[in-house]
């Protein structure tokens, strides 16, 4: 078992982006420490890519734009995204993200989903 590193810096954005291949998209980094109560990811969408409209029924999600630009679409309309923008996406709300021509890099943070558990079948 790997010991929990404790509080402190987990990654550095510039080196993370520098070390990842330019054409790599998706999760560039994930919070993976054992015993955590949060999940966090740094996501890179390539130019003109999108995350299709969907509803997250269980979790509120915080999105912090780190680089590039794009758009967030919710039932409240479409909003431009640029570095420094922070968005709150409450559970049950429809959302879609799209990158502009320069791509989009963003951090997501939400409560950790409980792991799957195998339980005995209920007694009949």
Give a verbal description of the structure:
It is a single chain. With 124 residues, this protein is mainly beta. Helices cover 6% and strands 48% of the residues. The protein is built from 1 helix and 7 strands, in the order H-E-E-E-E-E-E-E. The chain has one helix at 13-19, and strands at 26-30, 38-45, 50-55, 61-74, 77-81, 86-89, 94-111. Strands 1, 2, 3, 4, 5, 6 and 7 form a 7-stranded antiparallel β-sheet that branches. The chain starts with 12 loop residues before the first helix and ends in a 13-residue tail after the last strand. The model has no long low-confidence stretch (mean pLDDT 88).
Largest sheet: 7 strands, antiparallel
Rg result: 17 Å
* Helix-strand makeup class: mainly beta
Overall mean confidence score, pLDDT: 88
Q: Please give the alpha-carbon distance between the first and last residues.
A: 39 Å
Number of strand elements = 7
Q: Classify the helix fraction into a percent range.
A: under 10%
Give the CA-based shape.
globular
How many helical stretches?
A: 1
Give the assembly state of these chains: single chain
Strand share of the residues? over 45%
Q: Which blocks of ≥5 consecutive residues have pLDDT under 50?
A: none
> Helix and strand string, N-terminal first?
HEEEEEEE
């Amino acid at each position: 078992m790997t010991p929990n590193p404790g509080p402190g810096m987990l990654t550095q954005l510039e080196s993370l982006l520098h070390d990842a291949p330019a054409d790599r998209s998706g999760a560039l980094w994930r919070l993976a420490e054992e015993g955590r109560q949060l999940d966090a990811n740094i996501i890179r969408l390539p130019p003109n890519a999108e995350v299709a409209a969907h509803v997250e029924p269980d979790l509120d999600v915080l999105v912090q734009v780190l680089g590039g630009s794009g758009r967030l679409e919710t039932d409240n309309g479409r909003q431009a995204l640029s570095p420094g923008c922070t968005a709150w996406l409450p559970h049950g709300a429809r959302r879609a993200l799209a990158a502009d021509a320069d791509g989009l890099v963003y951090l997501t943070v939400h409560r950790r989903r409980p792991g799957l558990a195998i339980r005995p079948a209920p007694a009949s």
